[in-house]
User: Which sequence fits this backbone?
């Protein structure tokens, strides 16, 4: 494994998925590419983690899904944020902000 | 997440599983394809791109499995899978399943049966608010609780301070006039404020109060409450019943209320169909009311503790106030400390009201709970052994599943689920078994000619308890095998001959534990049986064999005392004339009925010494009594017909003679009835009612109870009016049928209009009298038998398995020159060593358990060395027998075949 790639912290995967879907609906591969892109390659999400998370979050009611055509005319399942998903993203962002601030302070002290 | 959407997900995941899986498959495959296309666009060759995509994915099936695990209800899904699989495995080996289920059903069923009784007899509370606040005042001697007298009730109410109030209750048959006919209805008398003490409210109408509990019943006359089921059956649950007038013993009583459903009174086994104020007693027993009489003990007294008080403070309070209560209730010290001096006042929990069964069966039931608990542990141990053997024969399956990625906890759960299913079937069978057993046990508890005294319809509490012990059993029997299964290493499954290394040490501690429990149960059964045999065979002072007893009740024809005495003589004479009857006699109280009878007698010694006894048992009999009863006359003579006239005579029991005439010859001396009270000047003041010359001394007889020392007795001859309307006839002859027929025919001829007598053999009376001991002996023997059987099965199974597993090793030994005898000894020694360890532990446990039984034993020490030695010898003999077959098989192993095997 590339040493510069970091394993996703527990709980951050959900946030990454929510964040990547904030701009619009996407299929699994798109989400994984998008996360890689917005973290500049720091996080790579393996399908083995991505799919369980997507299905779990759909059952939680944060995501909704529908079947559609991919860019190369392939049948794919597209995910989008629900209202609850947007709320969850806000909560997570807020929480994460607090944690990262606290950690940054702790490390500077 | 809210519950509802989660539940919807669960349902969808469970019901539309196939559809969801198909969608998932399409989704994941699309991902791989798109990934491959992306890589191709980046310049990879198609083949290479697809391979790289699949590597990045990490396996379609694995991804799908992880998604399935993340879904709501994934655990339920896999649980159902395990259940289905377990059920299939159980069905595949019906022999194992049957034996395991049967073993558990036996243990669970036995516990259910005993707990049914324990619950009904000990644990069930009166259906009143806060029953734990109730206390009951007792007047006990051994297993007999008389209840208390009216004056004690009044004095207690005045002096004690821990209760809000105390109620008095007396169950009684009430003669109710209906359409001109009189029927006896089970009912009760209750002190005026009783309902307030119980915390009950009538479901209809209102209740009476202390103001109505006065002679005549106050301004409105006597008032009555109806029991709920009586109201439904006799008055069609009509609300118009209020204000109706009942005629009870010729007196009108107005119905003012109906008791709440489920409340049958405070005396167990007696239904309160009609409840009247306590003052009604003077109507029932006119003109000899017991209400103010210090010597009539007929009341159940129940108090409700004030908040903050406890049973302990009630006991302390009774101790502090008892002297004042006694002085007030019995100022002349005639009853409480005289005739009834063997009885003691006490206070105990009143939670369950008053129950004869609770007094007699509490200790036996607690002992039985202990024994049956041990039995269940044994059943669990046996099941554990069976399951262990099965796990070890399935070790390859577990190894393969582990190798294919089943997590250890899944294997652990698989075994536990299979055992839980066994326990579930065991529970179902055990409940049926336990219910049937409880019914027959209750039938065993019934007194002569009476219906079973308990209701044993299945109760929620009993089912809950049984379910709980089934869960515990499943855990006890399943956890260890499950741990073994989860520790199977995948390597083991691949190796040849691995079974032996896996099986080694199985049950190495279970069999000794089984032996220990068996020794305990055997020892308990043996001391109980020994005690029972002693009770039956001990010289009781009479001979039950070949004797027949009859309970003659003339009360229906209302004879005078002189008439009934004359009738008794006539019945006895008519009976004695029948060929085949050797002797017949009448007596006033029945033998071994736990009855109580006392009179005040004294003798005068040579130097003016007075020997006085207020608890002498007076028994009035007809002339052939001693021959009929089989009580030997030790000295002097028995009664004869001529004693009807002339000087009044009596016969003393040996112990009574020694008491009244220490170191003297009692024959020819005088016994006086009446009073002999110590006076203030130190001399004894005597008042003589009657004088009797002692003409004989009879052997001591355990007349009251076979479990108790013989009471001191004085036998009087029935001269003119000493026998009341209910008396007992005893007759003896080689054929019980002939003798019983003779008594019946004699009664029919002498008193044709009276109810026919109840006739039973003396032997039957003895068995009924000892029904507690009989039940304990029978049950403990059953438990011990089952325990022994299970232990033998366990030991045999273990040794037989070990011989199979060690076939190669034994074969090698034989090939290297060991003789078959050595192989035999090897196996025997292994078995006996296990038994030896268990027996030592078992002896220690047995001593502890039989000590607890101590108070239930008669004439046998709880740690009787002979009995304990017998138990150990018996166990070793049986264990040797169980070891013989595997040992013989070991000796017959053919070395060549054994070495070629595997």
Assistant:
């Amino acid at each position: 494994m590339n040493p510069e790639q970091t394993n996703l912290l527990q709980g951050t995967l959900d946030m990454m998925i929510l964040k990547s879907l904030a701009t619009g609906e996407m299929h699994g591969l798109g989400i994984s590419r998008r996360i890689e892109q917005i973290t500049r390659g720091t996080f790579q999400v393996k399908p083995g983690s991505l799919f369980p998370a997507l299905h779990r979050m759909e059952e939680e009611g944060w995501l909704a899904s529908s079947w559609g055509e991919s860019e190369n005319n392939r049948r794919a399942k597209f995910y989008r944020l629900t209202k609850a998903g947007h709320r969850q993203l806000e909560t997570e962002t807020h929480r994460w902000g607090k944690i990262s601030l606290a950690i940054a302070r702790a490390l500077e002290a | 997440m809210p519950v509802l959407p989660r539940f919807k997900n669960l349902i969808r995941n469970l019901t539309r599983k196939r559809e969801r899986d198909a969608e998932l498959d399409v989704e994941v495959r699309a991902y791989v394809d798109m990934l491959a296309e992306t890589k191709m666009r980046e310049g990879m060759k198609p083949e290479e791109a697809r391979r790289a995509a699949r590597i990045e994915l990490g396996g379609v099936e694995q991804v799908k499995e992880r998604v399935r695990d993340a879904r709501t209800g994934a655990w339920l899904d896999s649980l159902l899978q395990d259940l289905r699989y377990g059920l299939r495995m159980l069905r595949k080996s019906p022999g194992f399943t049957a034996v395991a289920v049967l073993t558990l059903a036996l243990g669970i069923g036995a516990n259910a049966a005993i707990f049914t009784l324990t619950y009904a007899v000990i644990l069930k509370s009166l259906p009143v608010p806060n029953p734990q606040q109730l206390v009951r005042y007792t007047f006990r001697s051994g297993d007999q609780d008389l209840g208390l007298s009216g004056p004690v009730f009044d004095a207690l109410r005045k002096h004690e301070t821990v209760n809000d109030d105390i109620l008095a209750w007396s169950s009684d048959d009430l003669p109710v006039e209906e359409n001109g006919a009189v029927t006896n209805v089970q009912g009760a008398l209750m002190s005026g404020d009783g309902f307030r003490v119980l915390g009950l409210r009538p479901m209809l109408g209102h209740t009476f109060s202390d103001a109505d509990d006065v002679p005549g019943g106050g301004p409105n006359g006597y008032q009555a409450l109806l029991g709920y089921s009586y109201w439904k059956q006799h008055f069609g649950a009509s609300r118009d019943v209020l204000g109706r007038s009942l005629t009870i013993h010729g007196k009108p009583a107005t119905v003012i209320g109906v008791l709440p459903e489920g409340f049958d009174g405070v005396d167990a086994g007696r239904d309160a169909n009609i409840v009247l104020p306590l003052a009604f007693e003077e109507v029932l027993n006119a003109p000899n009311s017991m209400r103010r009489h210090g010597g009539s003990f007929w009341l159940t007294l129940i108090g409700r503790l004030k908040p903050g008080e406890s049973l302990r403070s009630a006991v302390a309070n009774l101790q502090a106030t008892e002297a004042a209560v006694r002085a007030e209730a019995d100022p002349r010290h005639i009853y409480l400390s005289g005739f009834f001096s063997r009885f003691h006042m006490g206070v105990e929990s009143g939670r369950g009201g008053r129950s004869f069964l609770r007094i007699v069966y509490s200790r036996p039931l607690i002992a039985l709970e202990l024994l049956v608990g041990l039995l269940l542990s044994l059943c669990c141990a046996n099941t554990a052994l069976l399951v262990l053997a099965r796990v070890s024969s399935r070790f390859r399956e577990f190894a393969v599943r582990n190798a294919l990625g089943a997590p250890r906890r899944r294997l652990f759960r698989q075994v536990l689920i299979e055992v839980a299913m066994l326990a579930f079937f065991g529970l179902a069978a055990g409940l049926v078994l336990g219910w049937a057993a409880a019914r027959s046990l209750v039938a065993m508890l019934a007194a002569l000619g009476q219906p079973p005294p308990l209701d044993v319809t299945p109760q929620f509490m009993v089912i809950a308890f049984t379910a709980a012990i089934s869960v515990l059993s499943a855990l006890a029997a399943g956890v260890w095998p499950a741990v073994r299964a989860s520790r199977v290493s995948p390597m083991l499954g691949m190796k040849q001959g691995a079974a032996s290394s896996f099986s080694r040490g199985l049950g190495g501690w279970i069999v000794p534990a089984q032996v220990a429990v068996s020794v305990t149960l055997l020892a308990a059964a043996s001391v109980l049986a020994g005690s029972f045999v002693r009770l039956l065979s001990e010289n009781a002072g009479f001979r039950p064999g070949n004797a027949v007893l009859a309970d003659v009740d003339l009360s229906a024809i209302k004879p005078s005392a002189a008439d009934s005495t004359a009738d008794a003589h006539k019945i006895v004479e008519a009976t004695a004339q029948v060929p085949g009857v050797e002797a017949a006699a009448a007596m006033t109280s029945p033998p071994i009925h736990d009855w109580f009878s006392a009179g005040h007698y004294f003798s005068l010694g040579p130097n003016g010494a007075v020997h006085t006894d207020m608890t002498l048992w007076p028994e009035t009999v007809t002339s052939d009594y001693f021959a009929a009863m089989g009580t030997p006359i030790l000295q002097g003579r028995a009664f004869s017909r001529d004693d009807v006239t002339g000087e009044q005579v009596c016969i003393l029991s040996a112990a009574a003679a020694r008491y009244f005439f220490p170191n003297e010859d009692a024959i020819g001396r005088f016994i006086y009835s009446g009073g002999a009270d110590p006076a203030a000047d130190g001399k004894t003041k005597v008042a003589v009612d009657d004088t009797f010359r002692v003409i004989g001394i009879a052997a001591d007889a355990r007349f009251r109870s076979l479990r108790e020392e013989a009471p001191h007795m004085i036998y009087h001859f029935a001269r003119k009016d000493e026998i009341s309307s209910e008396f007992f006839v005893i007759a003896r002859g080689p054929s019980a049928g002939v003798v019983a027929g003779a008594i019946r025919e004699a009664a029919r001829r002498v008193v044709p209009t009276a109810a026919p007598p109840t006739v039973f053999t003396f032997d039957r009376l003895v068995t009924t009298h000892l029904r507690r001991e009989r039940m304990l002996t029978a049950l403990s023997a059953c438990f011990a038998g089952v325990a022994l059987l299970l232990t033998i099965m366990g030991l045999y199974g273990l040794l037989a398995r070990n011989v199979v597993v060690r076939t190669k090793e034994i074969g090698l030994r034989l090939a290297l020159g060991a003789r078959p005898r050595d192989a035999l000894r090897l196996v025997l020694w292994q078995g006996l060593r296990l038994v030896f360890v268990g027996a030592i532990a078992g002896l220690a446990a047995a001593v502890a358990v039989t000590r607890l039984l101590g108070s239930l034993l008669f004439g046998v020490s709880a740690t009787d060395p002979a009995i304990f030695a017998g138990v150990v010898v018996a166990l070793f003999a049986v264990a040797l027998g169980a070891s013989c077959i595997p040992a013989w098989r070991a000796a017959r192993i053919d070395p060549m075949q054994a070495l070629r095997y595997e």
User: Anything to note?
Assistant: The mean pLDDT of chain B is 87. The radius of gyration of chain B is 38 Å. The first strand of chain B starts at residue 134 and ends at 141. Chain B has 29 helices and 22 strands.
